[in-house]
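Hi R.,

Here are the chain sequences for the assembly we discussed:
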Amino acid sequence: MSRHRNTILLSIGIVIFLALVPLLTKRNDLINLMVLIFLYICLAQSWNILAGYTGQVSLGHAAFFGLGAITTRILWVWGTPFLLAFLTGGVIAVVFALIIGHPALRLKGIYFAIGTLGLSQILKITIGNILPTVADLPGDYIATYTLIPRYYLCLILAVIIVVVVYLISRARLGLGMMAVREDEEAAKAAGVNTFRQKIIALTISTFFAGLAGGAFAFYHVSYYHDLPFNPIWTFDSLLITFVGGVGTIVGPIIGAFFYAIFKELFVRTFPQLHVFIFGILFILVVLLLPGGLVEMAARVRRLITAKDKSNG
Amino acid sequence: MLEIERINVSYGDLQALWDVSFRIEEKEIVALIGPNGAGKTTTLKTISGLLRPFAGEIRFEGLEMDRMPIHKRVEMGISLVPEGRGLFPGMSVLENLELGAFTAKGRSCKEETLEQVYELFPILKNRKKQAAGTLSGGEQQMLAIGRGLMSKPKLLLFDEPSWGLSPLLSKVIYEVIGQINNSGVTILLIEQNVRMALELANRAYVVENGRIMKQGNSRNMLDDKHIKEAYLGTEAV
Amino acid sequence: MSLQVFAQSLIFGIFVGGLYGLAAVGLSLVFGVMKMLNVAHGELLMLGGYVTFWFFSLYHIDPFLSLIPSAFVLFLIGMGLYKGLFSPLAKLHEEVKIKNSLLIGFGLSLVFHNLAIRLWTADERSVSVFYSGWGFSLFGLRFPFIRLAGLVLATIVILALQQFLTKTYFGKAIRATTENWESAALMGINIEKTSMISFALGATLAGMAGTVVSVGYAIHPAMGLEWTLKALIVVVLAGLGNIGGAFVAGVLLGATESVSALFVGPYMEVVGLVIFLLVLELRPQGLFGKRIG
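And here is the predicted structure of the full complex:
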């Protein structure tokens, strides 16, 4: 139990440290990198809730990210107070999820995956046609743009979602979800309302995906309206979550960290190399190490303690 | 010909067979009888290679078979007529039979064997272009048996050959099995209809809860008190 | 809108639909035998296009002549991919197997996409031959040779495949494995080998479609997802495992898309996707297929 308490204390310490970073450094590139990491954490963790905990592999995550982004951006640029626009983005994402939720969740396994992919593509093409332009910020917004609020928004969002995942994993809700993941038929027989579990997971997942999109819209000065609907955001979520460790709390965090770092490292030399590397790692994880980096770390730790035991 | 020595088989974490041992000599007909879920089908699946034991040995004609993949066992002369027939429903009767002769040995005398099968089951010849899934239960069983013969097996395994068939049809099937044995094929069959199995077989093993409980000459078993009570008692005449 | 415009649209749609069908047939074949959905199928198609492009730019071999060596290359790649990535999944429980194969295919598609960018840059490429612009006119409608050839090729290949599946022993083994793999194994069929050859065949079929795309249209590293989706739509329309139906459904999709472009313009792809979702929802076994699982 004390190890558990230590982990919590460590986490709080890390969060406090992260909160102080903007005060400790003026390096914008570092702050931008951290914002990217926080965004990836939100993207991946929200996906993790659906896939890691209920076992529903969705390939349409970008749709909700995009909906959050576009809602937030448009409302905010029209003059809505940002926080309201931000939350509305999350809500719109959820509304859409609930509309397609019933028919979508009826689909089994691969049909759910390719169905959500199809859905996400429809959205992307539609938005791309309705709004083919760049989403620019009005002049006065640009004038008052500062990085720090973006940093804190993304940090807070990342923290909240990690806490939510933590709570889910410990609550009865989480047990229900994981039962669905392990064996849906058995769960049904045991009295678990599997559909309800999936809808709840879908709601939480898409809400935070929408918020992540809102944060994206707040952070980026200009981008094409259909960019957040691009399937790469879905792919990023999968890569990060699986390589880090799907179904774990820490996995997506570790994955996001390395993914962002690799991306920045190679941005001038091999712009997409981080995707290539993670793609290969991803395949290796699925074939050999389903628990991802988290499992690898656990194995290494076991190896070390075993060595210690035999030495000491 | 076939030696099963202390095999233990599990489905995941669920153990189905415990230290099962028996043997089959050439040209014999041996029956495995016992209640539902006792492990009879599991045994056949293990012999044919669909399942692997985690302990124990299987020897066919002296050769250890544990690592042998399914298709190799067929080439060696073991053929299984599975539970529920296992036909290819979308393919024609003729195609099903042709697939039975897939092995090199089977293909080399395919036409000859086909004629023999048609002699045994004339109705298959009539229906040879028909899709296997559209046949009646009895016809499907005949096709399954015919298909099993196409590989020219030395040992033919039957999983519940009378399942779902009328008593009359079951009798016909059993007569055919007897004929097949007469032509030199060793038979191992599992069967719910204990009386029919014992009347055809030379020897029998009783399987209960994944273990061999009793064994012996089938004539003796027909008279055995325990068997009479457990398996023959409530049979309608 | 005149009848001529409509008819011309229809014709172009049928031409590209033949390629959709060819792409889908490979995917369907693989799923039937292995019960795995390879979502990197579009990338294999792209690879076929780039191999053709290489044969043409490096050795000046006409793309239709390089079909054979190109098919051979794709066949080898397919075998390698099967052995390395999909074969280990074969032993798994059906649901886990399908999910993991989806994930592996997904990872593969990203790797190939990036490899393509590295090797050929992100620009569009096309194979331009001397007869690229040729064609004939009939009733005022234009029939470009290359696109017509694409349709003819697709038809020939699929007919050949049908013959292979119905007349040869190995072809029957493939069909048997698709219907009941356990029984197929009990016939003495080597399931591992059958799966590997089927996967390699699927890759070859995709590659051939890619060849035509490189000549008649254009190829670029990001095209994989687009084509995978097209193949998926067709496969779902026809029913997983239905080969002949896949060709027909492909042509239907192509024609529908092309004609709907006249009415909804840039939303023509959405039409296909919406049909896809409707079929998934209401009739997952496809318009012509039977239920799986």
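The first strand of chain B starts at residue 2 and ends at 11. Chain B has a mean pLDDT of 88.

Let me know if anything looks off.

Best,
T.
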